[in-house]
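hi!! sorry for the late reply, been swamped w classes. u asked for the two structures so here they r. pasted raw, havent cleaned anything up. first the sequence of the first protein and right below it the tokens
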Amino acid sequence: MGSEVFSARARASRPLADAFVDWFTEGSEVFSARARASRPLADAFVDWFTVGSEVFSARARASRPLADAFVDWFTVGSELCTLLPMRLRLPSSIASVFLVLGVGCGFDSTGAGDSSGEADTDGNGDGDGDPGDGDGDGDPGDGDGDSGDGDGDGDSGDGDGDGDSGDGDGDSGDGDGDTGDGDGESGDGDGDPDPCAGYSFHEIMLASDGQPALPMALYGNENSPPPGVWAQSEVDEEGTITWGFDVECPVEVVMWAVVWDQKPGFLPDDADSFWVRMDGEDPERKWVFGCQTENVDSGWSYQQVSHNAGENTCMLESVSWVLNPGVHILRVRNRESSTFQGAAGIARVLLTSNADYVPTIAND
């Protein structure tokens, strides 16, 4: 009975130690019944068990596989199993029972660790050392920690999807779609086009496109020769006109405007200036365009926006704005009082990223 339990457990791939425990437990019950009917047999088993155990212990201490130790123990015990009944002249039937219980006579280690009828070279994934069988026994290709099998062993560049670099499994540098690997995404230096590379900005805004606030008002006619429509205020420090515009990429711009200066040049009692503000900046830029018109005939002309740091003199500073992508607000406010005819007027605004560009009214 014990051998049957042992065989069943082994076929189910239970560890050999567990199978032996089951065998020993159930076999012992039969042995106990038999031993009560024959004390000499019990003595024989004690000897058999003692000697076999010593061999088993010695083998185990030497780190021999459990199956080998068990076979040696069984073999030695089986020899005693055979000799002692002969010496005691036990009935052959009792000796046979003992042999059945021991399963030592004729025990063969072939196929240990396999299912029934399988030997150690069957290649069926039983942990017996067969290469490439996926049994986790340390050979290549079976997910047990060696290289090339996708088991997370950390080998770089082996294409096994185990998390190291160069194998297309999602980490950096292997062309799999993350940053810095030449896969076409933006900003990672991998040769993909920069949508803002070479970006330029050039936009003209007419007075008729702006929003005036009284006392700034619009005058003229769009169908008239340039400048067409313009904005002006005769009240000092009052009246504004505002434009909104949009840029797609970071850009630095300068500003030009078509302005009216009745008396060109920097002259007293001549309205020839505005306050200019971009995106609510504070303070505003004081633009005295009269400092720039002394060589211009009376009337309308394109002048570049600057800042005059002087009070009663021209101390001009160049002006530019660095703009981020998005919507921006430009506001121009009247600075000096004047008559209607002599008031400073503004007809159009040009914002450009080309600092060297010089527009004209006829071609801007």
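now the second protein. again sequence first, tokens right under
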Amino acid sequence: PNLSTISFSFTLANMSLPGTSSFIGEFPISVGAFQRNSLVATLAALGMILGAAYSLWLYNRVVSGNCKPDFLHKFSDPNGREVSIFIPFLVGLVRMGVHPKVFPD
């Protein structure tokens, strides 16, 4: 459950969920593109929607897809040390999304 939760957090960030670092980059670009050329912006928005759908499809396949029975005996959930490696990345991901002005342009 720990690895799937961490993976889902990164999947949501890849989908540019508000409050993550990806949203801060994609939202102003999308707004500016709609003001400049709505056709190109519509195609870009379609690409973002397809990218989000692919991210969810990929997450679903990785986390709950078919796996070989012998793999389940070898695989274990990450231990505390391995989870602690992901913590700074998750904190940075949310911190950049909540307080983007702290980071240089």
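hope this helps!! also noticed smth abt the second:
The chain has five helices and no strands.
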